[in-house]
Task: inverse folding
DNA sequence: GATGAATGAGGCTTCATTCAT
DNA sequence: TATGAATGAAGCCTCATTCAT
C-alpha cells in the first residue's frame, strides 16, 4: 500500500513537472493535455487517471512550486543572522528560483485568469504566505533600524517585481552567470530599502 | 480616395482598441474574434475585411501601443531638464501606461509566445526602441554624475520590472491613487540609480 | 429581416426534426451531434450556430412536439360536442400522434433523465398542460353523468399509458391500419370510464 | 468445482443486481462500469472477469428479471381459480414488479435500442413468454365466457401499457400505497375485458 | 481472482477562418 | 463593406476495454 501510493505520488509529480514545462512555454490556454502527455510518452486519457481535469492539474503545479519556495524562505528567516543578511539571502533564493525553475515560477504570476475560486483561494493564500516572509524580514529590519522605509508592502512588491522580470531577459549560457546576477541584484535592491 | 482611406484607418483603429480591451481581459487565447467584434456591434466575419487574421490584428495592437509609449518617452527625453527629472518623468509615464492602459501593456510582456518571426521582429525592435530611451537617460545621467551605477542595462531592467509588476496588484478604486503610486515609485526607484 | 428570421426558424425546425429522429432511434445519450448533423448533410459544428448545446437542441425538440399536441387537444375541447365525443377524439388524436410522429412522441416520456431544472420545468409544465385537457374532459363528463369513475387522475394515466404503449408494437404497413387501431382503442378505453 | 462454481454464480448475481440498480438510475448509456463496480466495492477491471463486456452484463440483467416475472405468472396460471381471479393476480403481480423492481423493469421496455441480435433474440423470446401467460388467461376467460372481447392481443397490450406507465408517475412514499394502486388498476382494467 | 494503470475511440464544444450574397 | 452561415481542426473529457502483475 505504502509502495503503490508512493509510486502514484511519483507519477503525479512527473506529470506536474511536464505540465509546468509546457504551460510555461505556451501559457495556460496554449498548453494542451495532449502535449503534456506526449512529453511523458503517455496518452492524454491517462492524465485523467491522475488528475480530475486540466484545471486540477495546473492547480497542483502551483501548489508544488509555491510550497518549495515557501519552505526555502522559512529556513532563511529562522537563521540567526541580521535582517539585511536574511533579505539578501531571500533575494538570492528568489532569483535562483526565477531562473533555474523559470518554468514553474512563471505560473504563479496570474492565477486569477486561470482558476475559479475553489482553487484560486488556496493559491492566493500560499502566495501571500510566500510574500509574507519578505514582509516579515523587512518589518523586523525597519524595527531595528537596519532598513529605512515607510511603504513596506510596496517596497516588497518593487523587489519582487524587479526580480521576476529577470526571466524576460536572462539567458543561461549568456554572458552573466547566475551568481553574478544575484550579486548585482543584491547590491541595487538593497539600496531601495536603506 | 484619400477620404475612404481615412475612414478605413479610423475603423481599423476602432477595432484595435476593442481588441486591446478584450485581449487584456481574457488574454490572447481567451479573446475571441466574436467578442472583439461584438464590442463594436459588428460580426466577426467583418473583421477579416480589415485584418488578415487574428495574429495580424493582435500585432497591430502591439504596434499602436508601443508607438504611443515611444512617442511619449521621446518628448520627455528632448526636454531641457536634468536627467534625474527626465527619469522621474519617464517612470511616471511608464506607470501611468501600465495602470491606465493595463490592457495594452500586458501584451508587450511576452510577445514571443504569441507571434511568429515575421511579426515578432518589428515588435521586438519597437520594444528595444522604447527601452533605449530609458537607457539613454541613464547613460547621460551617469556621464554627468547625476547617477552612480555601473550595470546600466540591468538597472534599467530592475526599474522596468519593478514597474511592470504594478499590474499584478494595483486596483483602480483601491486605496492608492495613481499619483501616489507614481510618487512612491519615483522615490524608491531613484534610490537605485543614485 | 423578416425573411432572414423565417429562414433561420425554418432551418432550426429542420434540425429539430432531424434530432427528433435520431434521438428516437438511439435515445438521448445514444444520439450524437455528429449524426444529427449528418442527417442534414451538415457538419456538427454548424449545429452550434443554431443551438447553444445538445441539451438546448433536445429541449427545443420537446417544446415543438408538445406544443403541437396541446394545440390539437385544445381545439377538440372547444368544440360543441358531448364529452364522450371529445374524449374519443382526443384518444384518436393521441394515437395518431403516437403512431405517426412516433419519433417525436417518445421524447416526452422521460424528460427527467435528460434535463436540468432550468429546462425541465417548462417541459413538465407543458406536459401537465397536455394532460390537463384530458382531465378537463373527464371531469366534465363525470359532472354531467356521462362517465362514472372516482379516480380521475389515475384513469387518465391508464388511458395515456395504454395508448403510449402502442409504439412498442405498432408497425406501419402491418396488419392493422391506423384507423382500425383508433377504433379498437376507443372501444376498449371508453369502457374504462363508463 | 461445484463449490467454486456456486461462488462464481453468486458473485455474478451480486454484480447483476448492482448493475440493475445503476442502470435504472442512469439508463443504459448513463450507467458506467466504474459505478457498477463501485457499488460493490470492486474496481471496474474485475467486472471483466465475470462478464465479457458491458452488453453481456446488461443482457444478463434482463434475463434475471424476466425469468423472475415469468416464474411468478406461471405459478398464478396454474392455480385452481377463475380466470378473472387469475388476471387480477397477474395485474397485481405486474404492478408490484413495475413499482418495486422499477429498476429492472425499465430495461425490458426497449431492448432493441440496447442489444444486437445475438442477445436480442433470447430477450424478445422471454418477453413473449411473459406476455403469453396474460394471453392464455384472457383466452381461457373468453372461452368460458368470463371475458367478452374480440381483440385479444390488443387488449393484452392495453393492459400492459396502462400498467407500465405507472412508473412514470408513481412515487414511493407518495400519497398512494402500492396496494391501493393495485386495487384501483384491478378495478378499471377489469372493465376493459368484460 | 483482483487491480492499478493505460489506452484509444468517440463525444461535446469552441473558434478562427472562409465565402456567397 | 458587411454579414449570415458553414466548416473543420483542435481541445477537453469520458469510458469501455485491456493487460501485466
Result:
Amino acid at each position: 500500500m505504502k509502495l503503490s501510493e508512493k509510486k502514484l505520488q511519483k507519477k503525479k509529480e512527473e506529470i506536474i513537472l511536464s505540465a509546468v514545462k509546457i504551460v510555461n512555454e505556451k501559457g495556460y490556454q496554449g498548453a494542451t493535455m495532449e502535449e503534456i502527455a506526449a512529453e511523458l510518452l503517455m496518452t492524454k486519457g491517462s492524465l485523467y487517471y491522475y488528475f480530475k481535469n486540466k484545471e486540477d492539474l495546473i492547480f497542483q503545479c502551483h501548489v508544488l512550486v509555491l510550497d518549495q519556495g515557501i519552505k526555502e524562505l522559512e529556513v532563511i528567516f529562522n537563521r540567526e543572522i541580521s535582517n539585511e543578511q536574511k533579505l539578501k539571502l531571500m533575494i538570492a533564493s528568489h532569483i535562483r528560483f526565477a531562473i533555474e525553475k523559470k518554468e514553474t515560477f512563471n505560473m504563479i504570476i496570474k492565477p486569477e485568469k486561470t482558476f475559479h475560486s475553489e482553487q484560486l483561494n488556496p493559491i492566493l493564500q500560499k502566495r501571500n504566505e510566500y510574500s509574507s516572509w519578505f514582509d516579515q524580514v523587512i518589518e523586523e529590519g525597519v524595527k531595528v533600524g537596519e532598513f529605512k522605509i515607510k511603504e513596506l508592502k510596496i517596497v516588497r512588491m518593487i523587489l519582487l517585481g524587479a526580480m521576476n522580470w529577470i526571466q524576460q531577459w536572462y539567458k543561461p549560457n549568456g554572458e552573466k552567470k547566475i551568481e553574478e546576477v544575484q550579486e548585482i541584484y543584491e547590491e541595487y535592491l538593497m539600496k531601495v530599502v536603506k
